[in-house]
Amino acid sequence: MPMRRARSLVPLVGVLPFFAYLLLFLLIPTVVVIVGAFQENGSFSLSNIHALTNAATVDALRSSVVLSASTAVIGGLLGALLAAVIASAPETSLVRRAVLALSGSLAQTGGVSLAFAWMATIGLGGTLTTMVQNALSIDITASGWLYEMPGLILVYCYFQIPLMVIVFLPALDGLRPQWREAAQTLGANRFQYFTQVAIPLLLPAFLGSLLLLFANAFAAYATAAALVSQGSSILPLMIRAALTSEVVLGQQHLAYAIALEMIVVVALIMGAYAWLLRRSSRWMR
Amino acid sequence: MKRWLRWLVLLVFAVYFFGPLLSMLDFSTKTGTGGRSGAAWKALVTNHEVLGAIGQSLLLCVTTVVLMLVILLPTMIWVRLRLPRLKRLIEFLCLLPLTIPALVIVVGINGVYAWVNYFFGYSPVVLTFAYVVLVLPYAYRALDSSLSALDVTTLAEAARSLGAGWLTVITRVVMPNLGAGILSAAFISVALVLGEFTFASLLNYQTLPVVIDLFGKRDAHVSVAAALGSILFASALLLLLSLAGTRSRGRKGA
Amino acid sequence: MFTSAGKGPVAVDFVDLHRHFGNVRALDGLTLAIEPGELVCLLGPSGCGKTTALRILAGLDHPTSGEVRVAGKDVTRVPANRRDMGMVFQAYSLFPHLTAIDNVAFGLKLRGIASGVRRKRAGEMLELVGLSEHADRYPHQLSGGQQQRVALARALAFQPSVLLLDEPLSALDAKVRVQLRDEIRRVQLEVGTTTLFVTHDQEEALAISDRVGVMNAGRLEQVAPPAELYSAPSSQFVAEFVGLTNRVPAVVRDGTAAVLGRQLPALAGSVNGDGLALIRPEAISVVPDEQGPATVVDMSFRGPVTQVRCELHRADGGEPIDMVVQMASAAAQKLTIGGRVQVDIDSAAVLVVPV
């Protein structure tokens, strides 16, 4: 008996490097964060968790949620529209492949490049800025809105829309033409088909994609960091402030607490996403 | 959907997406006096800091792809061949970085990186370790879909019956057939590494995105030029990937 | 019990239908009259145009020229959702987010029928196809055969004037296919709806149809009841597509064909002079005979019948002719492989085609 058990354990050696690697570079940091959130000055303390209820932190949480939710909804609707436009094209169509490839690269585009793209467009001395200045004598950068919530929303959509296209397109492709034709022969007009067949079928995938977009925006750091050089309007920027703060030492653990908060939010969202995905995959076979 | 409506929608999106790119081109070639100049672009190859950062980022791309393949590929093949029950666990672990924000990992990774710096020095190349983790979900998905299309078990059994050892099976039988997946994983990794900012900036390494951000206050034109350059490079890679993908699909055979 | 009050079965007419896709002629002048209550099968190989014709009738496609008439009225321009036709697709047509009974009731819901009445009628339809206990199951919980029964119930629930079936059995297992095709015929006879059935399986077509229309390259080769199609094919294509055929040398003179020592009437469409007679395997009989002109090459036991392959040696010493003979297994027991046999035909008439 022991011999057989030992034999079946040997193959596990093959995956040891993988697990060891993840342990070092993913699991330990996460555990450090979770544990560190409950520590202060080397001993157990809830002071940092408590700090999460400060006005500033709650504000940052609210802004993060607003930013993520609005870009998820806007990006989701617009992305679904774009996906719908190319879903009807055959797989080899040039337009479809071009849109997909561009979506792939824009969705991954580093946040810094993105921030600069928009600063070059509507920031100080930007192309659009000068065009509008010369034509209508209006300074669109006046209020500095680009570096606040409205600006963040505009810029975030730049990678949320392509992400939506990539994530939602498979669901649209999964809509079989037979369903549409069957609905037609049963007497449904376009509106009835959409409301009674297409939308109910697409709803789980659509909502799931929105959740994914929400998590994506919530966790995003680079774009905001590049656009907003100082300040802690949203949670990621607050972490930056806590980590790089040279004035107040011991802010390190506050960063842990905020990071823990982020893990919890994102984990909840991703859990809901996984659940919705499982529901809709039952049908899309 | 009506044809003209379709094209109108595509046009509006094209303006939204290409507009800023064109603006970057415009902005990076402007001079203060209203003329055009390629100075910013020239700086990309002459300015030490920028050049150094580009070099570091490109080097990071290579090391990340290599390490990712070394860690991930044998593990995935091995699991498929000998430990199929672990598949769900591996999948969950590989998708975990999607749930744990990079920002969070970086917050907790300081301790580990103290050791890394001790062993490997302070060069940005040590970011490779963290980058492989970030790249995991995308690379896993690309490799997994390639593996699923291949009947790995049968291939392995055939090879073993001909006398091949496990190492040979993995390196000379399975891997060559995974070309598409490996390429896909590699390209996505490159795109991600070129744009990664969170780790690099908070751990204080001078990669391209970090330098772009620094130059933002010093000489915005150079920043924008570098940013546009990296967007175009990553896009070209991914476009190439998608074209290669659709062409090779026709060649799939026994 | 289910024929709609005041709405008897209707006649369907295809009038000179043409359908071109660029250079491809999917339909090249199709004219067909379907009687009220009839089940007509369109049979043919892939690409012959049968599915195109069905989809044009359904309104899912439009002809390049020609007319479609239902009960005498021209419906060519009527959109699909207003044609009052029930359609069963090859696969995957059930709405996955609705239960079986809700799927069946879908057409009724669209017509504004009240919820209670809907459910009752849908329940009756499910009983008609034998699936009452599965009413609250979702499509992915049903087998392929069960899904197609639900699809049939759904197509008939709102009492359409025409029933269309597009290769409904092609995606199913062999055994299920046979069961289900008899079901479909039984239901169709009970409900009495005019039906158009498209398939590439000639056994299916022969088993359930009132008439079969054999199509080839966008044209109708022959429309006839199954037995007539089988025994009196009007062209080589029909003879060879429907059932197995042997080609045996024959000489035709004055409408009579001399083949294998017999004189048989030649069917209309036969050539004059030298040709090849198309003979069904079961119309040939062989008995052991040392002096016989043919040799047994192979025997394949099929249960009640055995298929025997022979080589018929020609008097002029040319290439021997391959023949497939079907005979009762008891009689086949007397044959030996390699043994010589005498060949005889028992056929009312033969079609002789050019060599």
Entry keywords:
heterotrimer; A: 285 residues; mainly alpha; MetI-like fold; 13 helices; 2 strands; C: 355 residues; alpha+beta; six-stranded mixed beta sheet; five-stranded antiparallel beta sheet; 9 helices; elongated; disordered N terminus
Detail the topology: elements first, then pairings.
The complex is a heterotrimer of chains A (285), B (254) and C (355).
Chain A: H1 2-9, H2 16-36, E1 39-40, E2 43-44, H3 47-51, H4 55-87, H5 94-108, H6 111-122, H7 127-136, H8 149-173, H9 177-185, H10 190-219, H11 222-227, H12 235-244, H13 252-281
Antiparallel strand pairs in A: 1-2
Chain B: H1 3-28, H2 39-46, H3 48-82, H4 87-99, H5 102-108, H6 110-120, H7 127-149, H8 152-161, H9 166-174, H10 179-195, H11 198-202, H12 208-218, H13 220-249
Helix pairs in contact in B: 1-13, 2-3, 2-13, 3-7, 3-10, 3-12, 4-7, 7-10, 8-9, 10-13, 12-13
Chain C: E1 12-21, E2 24-34, E3 39-43, H1 50-58, E4 65-70, E5 73-74, E6 85-88, H2 100-110, H3 115-128, H4 144-157, E7 162-166, H5 174-191, E8 194-199, H6 202-208, E9 211-216, E10 219-224, H7 226-231, H8 236-241, E11 246-253, E12 256-259, E13 262-265, E14 273-279, E15 284-288, E16 294-301, E17 305-312, E18 321-328, H9 329-332, E19 340-345, E20 351-353
Parallel strand pairs in C: 3-8, 3-9, 6-7, 7-8
Antiparallel strand pairs in C: 1-2, 1-4, 4-5, 9-10, 11-12, 11-14, 12-13, 14-20, 15-19, 16-17, 16-19, 17-18
Helix pairs in contact in C: 2-3, 2-4, 3-4
